[in-house]
Amino acid sequence: MNIIYKIISNFINNKSLYIGEKVTMSEHMIQTAMNAEKAKSSASLVCACLLHDYGHYILEDPDKLVKKKLNGKHEDIGYEYLKKFFKKDVVTPIKYHVLAKRYLARNKKYYNLLSKASKISLKLQGGILSNKESKDFEKQTFFENTIKLRKFDEAAKKTNIKMKCIIDYKKLLISQLL
Ligand SMILES: [Fe+2]
Prior knowledge:
Mean pLDDT: 91
Low-confidence stretches: none
Bound molecules: fe (ii) ion
CATH architecture: Orthogonal Bundle
Radius of gyration: 15 Å
CATH topology: Hypothetical protein af1432
Shape: globular
Helix content: 55-70%
CATH class: Mainly Alpha
Number of strands: 0
CATH superfamily: Hypothetical protein af1432
């Protein structure tokens, strides 16, 4: 099956809730892309936002993983799969969006605002970054977009907003293929 149709069908058929939240995984990713659009982000960043948790579609039930205290590494799984089809500017922020969370969590206020599920997964993902790790991350070319993705991601758990649908993003997805 063509990758675009496969993505669309995964978005439409997946009804599992986003870990510890009231929105589905598909709604969560679409809201992340909507946030990026609102902030007038580039097409590649909107596309990265739309697909950032795609690894969860490939992995086993993410709720089960958190309960079993396992880190599914959904960012790597999503990255390895999507890089075969999408531009580097799309897939790199996906690979590092968990690192961005570990970076941002150094700020106490940010950490306290994380949901319970997110705090548990932070631990499983390696915890808060050290000063050295943070400095290295800041030097990367993808640093800024990765932090942006993470912030759009966190604000994408609303239940009472008018949602776009995955079909609305078909053209954008096609425009970001290799
Ligand atoms: Fe997310």
